[in-house]
Amino acid sequence: MPELPEMETYRQQLSRLILGVPITGAEVTRSKSLNIDPDEFIRKLTGNRISRIERRAKHLLFHLATGDVLVLHLMLGGWIFYGTQEEKPDRTVQVEIHFGEHHLSFIGLRLGYLHYHTSTEVEKILQKLGPEPLGLDLIQFRRVLRSKKGNLKVSLVDQSFLSGIGNCYSDEICFEARILPLRKVPSLSENEQMMLYQAMQALLREAIQFGGYMEEPLFVGDRLTGQYNPRCRVYDRGNEPCPRCGHPVVHTEVSSRKCFYCAHCQV
User: Is 186 one of the catalytic residues?
Assistant: First the structure.
């Protein structure tokens, strides 16, 4: 599932491609991906423009010139492609927005969605999300930690606790901080809290710099998207040697979520 770095990579790249470009039409092949009638969706978009793209947690918010907002959540398996009809991958597209000869294709939205809302509705929808990890200083982070009593893995992926972190980066952050993801949050010392905070800041910024871990390119010739994937230390590296100590990386499940860590150098 795309997390904060993947959605931020999409935001940055799409902002250079589609802002201010007239929307010439749209196509919907799966009405359940929308929250309004497909014909109404197409009518509201045609002739409109995207004036700004914002990321909030794992959502992208496409702010329209009319003041309304498209809210995207890719969920599991969703991704985006931008290009001409000839460049489009041979995959089922649930929703497509047309910008002349170029199309923004939303692929794999079987669980995800692209909803049309007023700005007021968007505020209500997103108000339950926790703070953005990269917007916190150490004092604020420690204050947020006090609200959690469970283990670190489950806490980090809780979107009401911190927004934008999922399975991949929760494991990567814990590895970077040398802390087991199975540890209970109240058991962390002040020094471990600081190490966790520093790891979170450094790891998420590095992942954004290298385009996240999703490998499907956004457009033909895209050399950024997915470049963090080979840099993952432990995520999806079960039984491979730990890059720090050489012991095999453990693959287990925590609350039905896959979890990867090194039992030797994470404590």
Answer: no
Residue with tokens 């004092």: 139
* Domains of the chain by start residue, with CATH: 4-126 (3.20.190.10), 133-261 (1.10.8.50)
> pTM of the prediction?
0.96
Q: Is 124 an annotated catalytic residue? A: no
Q: Which one from 2, 5, 181, 217 is the annotated catalytic residue? A: 2
Distance (Å, rounded) from C-alpha 129 to C-alpha 114? 18
pLDDT digits (tens, 9 = 90+) for 100-133: 999 999 999 989 999 999 999 999 999 999 999 9
* 89 part of the active site: no
In whole angstroms, what is the distance from residue 166 CA to residue 152 CA?
12
Whether 58 is a known active-site residue: answer yes
